Amino acid sequence: MNKIRLINNSILIRTVKTALTALLSVIVSQELSLDFVAAAGIITIIKIF
Question: How many CB atoms are located within 10 Å of the residue 41 CB?
Fold first, then answer.
């Protein structure tokens, strides 16, 4: 049971980290006035995995 809980927690932590890094990359690309803001978030997600 603890192993399942540990796996669920690690998946949750990885998901939150991915979401935060994608959000951060979108914000930074907007501040830099880049043309393809959404692409920055997508590239970040792909790069993490």
Answer: 19
